[in-house]
Amino acid sequence: MVFGVRVSWAVFGVISLPFDLVLAQNYPLVADSRCNCYRTNTSTSHYFRNHKFFDFRSLSQYARVPAPINTAQGNADAAVTSGYFLSPEWTNTWSIQNWNNSAMMGGNSDITGSDATVLMVNSPNNIYIQHNDDQRASSNTYLVMRTMRHDDFQSAAEIESGSYSYQYLSMRMLARTKGPPGAITAMFTFRNNDTLSKVQESDLEIRTSDPVQYIQYTNQPSWNEDGNIPQATRNVSLPTKLGWSDWQYHRMDLPDPVDTRFYQLLVDGKLVSSIQFQAPKDPSQVIFNTWSDGGTWSGNMTVNSSAEMHVQWIELVYNTTDSAPAPPPKPQICANICSIDQTSKTGTPVLVQEPQNPSNPGGGSGPGTCTTAKYGQCAGKNWSGCGSCASGTTCKFQNDYYSQCL
């Protein structure tokens, strides 16, 4: 098994700002090099090996809004919009797309998965860094993914992970969507197959034709020759006054398929939806896009109009199976356990559990010989981590799935 950069598992979510203050505890901030494993703030007992954080909030040196390109070929051939998209920080994980949908137009939608009526061309020109001009802006800059309706085609934006091996995953972003009806913005995982019914895809999608409180969650495919598959989709109304046009924390978790086969969505830290039907079970890509093709799902944008997804940051915690499938790491090899959910600084993990000093009685790195720091988990259903609390604290029951060192 080849592990990638930084880790966790699977849940979708949305949270109102300020996010840095949510779930923060008195744990020490640490570099990822201090972390052997990561856990998320859910009831799963699984550990994750890798963690990546992409921060677009302070990139003023790269900020530039490119003018639209009004030919389909010109969009496909466009260069990247700044040096940031040539840096190893970006290229080691992401690939900017320039493919078009011409092969999917005019065919049987049950086979192609598309009823597009407009040529759509993905363009590097539609992915760029922009200054944040909001009142009381929470960042200096953000990433923009733009789609625009031209006279006879639609330009779009898509980034895909270079790795197809994300299997156990928690992916998050702080984002908003702006624009008129007819566009889609999305965060999803994807495993292709020539047979539509065998495609594995979990989507968080925003349709600009929907009210701003509505978000769509789907385990694809959501239709077949008999029509729509209701159990594949959840239409969720956000339980806050904010909508998708406001900055929201979105999260999608894909759990260990041996355990639960579903993904969950969180809004303001609460589970808002889960789908067990057709949950992905094999390694996949991670993809973000903004698009329209004139089809039934997206609708048709007005000529010269554009829609955008703005992203302040993207965070991934995951396991990967680049060489051969393997289960998540076991607690015995997780001497230092970190969290990205209980941190006071978004993107920086905190150390929530480490072995007792070997000079102390019971010291070691196994699950039965380590201690949990104050405020960390010490017991609960499916819990397989440390059961002892640090000196001066006691394991206190909170609920069936969680006891805490206090």
Automatic annotation (TrEMBL):
Q: Which GO terms describe its molecular function?
A: cellulose binding; hydrolase activity, hydrolyzing O-glycosyl compounds
Lineage, uppermost ranks: Eukaryota, Fungi, Dikarya, Ascomycota, Pezizomycotina
Which GO BP terms, alphabetically?
A: carbohydrate metabolic process
Q: What is this protein called?
A: CBM1 domain-containing protein
Asked if the keyword Disulfide bond belongs to this entry, the reply reads no
Q: Which UniProt keywords apply?
A: Signal
| Pfam families with a match to the protein in the record | CBM_1
Please list the residue ranges annotated as the CBM1 domain. 370-406
Read off the CDD domains from this record: Glyco_hydrolase_16
Which residue numbers delimit the GH16 domain? 60-322
List the PANTHER family hit by this protein, alphabetically: GH16 DOMAIN-CONTAINING PROTEIN, GH16 DOMAIN-CONTAINING PROTEIN-RELATED
User: Which stretch is the leader sequence?
Assistant: 1-24
Domain of life (superkingdom): Eukaryota
**This protein's GO CC annotations:** extracellular region
